[in-house]
Write a structure and sequence with these properties.
This protein is α/β, with parallel strands linked by helices and about 325 residues long. Helix content is about 45%, strand content about 20%. A hairpin with a 2-residue loop joins strand 4 and strand 5. Helix 5 packs antiparallel against helix 6 and helix 6 packs across helix 8. The termini are far apart.
Length: about 325
Amino acid sequence: MDCCGHEGPGGGDAKFEIQRVADGVYAAVAAPAYKVNCNTAIIENADGVMIVDTHSKPSAARVIIDKLRDITKKPVRYVVNTHFHWDHWHGNEVYPAAYPDAEIVTNQITREAMLMKGLKRLQDHVRQVPAEVAKLRADLAAAGNATQRARLETDLRLAESYLAEVRALKPALPTIAFEGTMKLYRRDREVHLLHLGRAHTAGDVFVYLPKEKVVITGDAMIGWTPFMGDGYPEEWAGTLDRLAQLDFTHIIMGHGDVAGREWLATFRSYVHDMVEAVRQEAATGATLEEAKQRVSAKLAPRYEKPFSTYGDYRPWRTGVLANIERTFGMVS
């Protein structure tokens, strides 16, 4: 894969590595950031560009637009949101501002979740981030060494910048919503937008390019331990089984590097084994704390290493304990 690093003007911590995955198909792989950014997929068609997911803030989306202009002069015609989480759609507003004819697309389930949950969570961010800023200022004042001060100064700058952005954010909701499946037939490629079942959220959208054998998963697959706070652990593996029936070789995930089918097998196996282990603990009458201790110990020999690629940024143990808690509450 061809790749290059990119950080646009004013991007702050929005850094992306642009990887060519297939002819006219690119992954903008997000580097770890203070406020997490998702990956973006860029699909160049004969008559325009499709963007998949738009990050946690408008400035990050502007970094992608800046890089996009180096790749092609074609306009963005479609922006797809894979699900309703803030780090995948809070940059939406940037695209119709830069490309007035751009349509924002998702399925009906996800659009409704944006309205019912996403907009409320945006207001939660506006209320919560000032306390985060105040704590960083207090920690900075008490910092004991230069290394600690430098890190806190950077975090404080990024938190203040994010607060300014989130206060000014103008949420751009999808203008097209589909049920089940939507297919776009361009002159040079087909693009399938699929709902394969519940996993990370109720409405996860998968983008499938059959000719290029590429699938874009949003956070139904990522490069570290999945977040299940809005998820359906008991249904997740089945949704991935339906994904596995498609013919593809490359996976552009919601977070983490571009992967192959071997990561699908590992990721699906982790979700399945975690759910089954929690079910077994619940059936024996174990408490949540007992289940956390025993299930994490049972899974660690097989899964801790592959899910620790981003260990400092997204620690395995933190993720698996949260997954166990979510699952335990649903099966017990």
